[in-house]
Design brief:
This protein is α+β, with helices and mostly antiparallel strands and about 475 residues long. The protein has 4 domains: about 45 residues, no CATH class; about 220 residues, TIM Barrel; about 120 residues, Sandwich (Immunoglobulin-like), CATH 2.60.40.10; about 60 residues, no CATH class. Helix 3 packs across helix 6 and helix 6 runs antiparallel to helix 8.
Amino acid sequence: MENPFSGTKQFYSSGQSILELPVGDYIVRAFKGLEYEIGESGIQIVSGETSDLRLTLRRWIKMSQKGWHGSDGHLHIARPVPELNPYIARIMRAEDICIANLLQWGLADRFHNAIQYAHGPEGIYEEDGYILAPGQENPRTHFLGHSIILGLHTPIHVSDDYLIYRLFWERAKDQGGLTGHAHLGGSHPTDIGGQYGLPVVVPHNLLNFIEVMQFSHSFYDTWYDMLNLGFRITPTGGSDYPCGGATIPGKERFYTRIAGNLTYEKWLDSVGKGRTFVTNGPMLQFNINDIDIGEELILQKPGSVVLEGTVWFDSNRDDVLRIEVIENGVSVLSFPRTDDSGEIRFRVNHNIQETSWLALKASGNKIDEPRHWGLIRSLDTSAAHSAPVYVTIEGSKPIKSNPRAKDVARKWLARLEDLEKRLAEDKIKHLAERLAKFQQDVASEEVLRRDRVALIDEIKVAKSYFTKI
């Protein structure tokens, strides 16, 4: 298959493949996700002769031995019949994606794109430790953002109140599902609407996760804002394959820590509890006083704690320059790369003065990585970020009482005011026309007018919430 983004010809192989090629010299590279080194070798094709080439892929790390399993949270691979399961599972195995979330996506008037033959337990397929799971990217509009729901028993499509995301998420909670926001959560200038839609629904405390890594890009600001408001939101990552210019499933992914054998039920539970880190290459671990990612450390009073973290990386693919400890959205400690070991490690004492959240972030550059072009141009960055460890000091003020939360509330109130103005009766036509120019699969003028009053009521509730903060 010709890949116009990387300028290469590529294909999936079960381990042995036969190709017919013109005479000449070739470079063959073999990949298997993030935990294996790239296998590479040259070969000369001679007329009339068969040339054999054997590539051995060496695993540089095995995260499952540490209890971590990799997932792509955002795949649009149609699966209308169960007979496709073995074929899709082999692709996920080739990319070493343990949990592949296949999202059926919808619009206000239909919900049948990238269709899944079944939702709930009947739609779960497992083969040799790799799991295919149905989910949905619905509702989705370009001025409120795109939402994701995982773990449903039956799909949800509220066509008559499509712009009232809360209704979808409440029904998801009734089914025990997890709700999230896609596409960098509304932080990037070219993103899809989330910076306006999230303030409408966040006050209802229905959001479980947010995609902070996608399209060769990582962006954490909106996620940090929600954490500073006191919401414990799990970070996830996903490729959005094959949409948005994504050429490789799992190019961005997230890892989830699970005790014992991997099952979809255990995975959902751990994602809901925030036991994750996102990455496009580096692997990490982080704890505070031996309390791991996603968990809570309770202190009787302010004082010193022990921070311990490690980032591992394949130094042939990732030039990780530093790792940082992020406390309440601010980098408070930094540890640069000082050797070529493919590892940065620290263990330090750190003073905690207030109820806080802390996380570990890795950053650097990709090495010899084909440039990726899509909705957002690749910056060739190497990145990873853990979910927080939460530190609660007994008797202290909650996080949302901090001045940081007040700043976020002011910013989000301004966004709600902006959204309310765009929904004015005499502005609806302009909004619909603007959205239609951007992309055809957005809410129509008819839908905007139909749901306008109900959506303004939702905005008023959200404004009241942030005004109190």
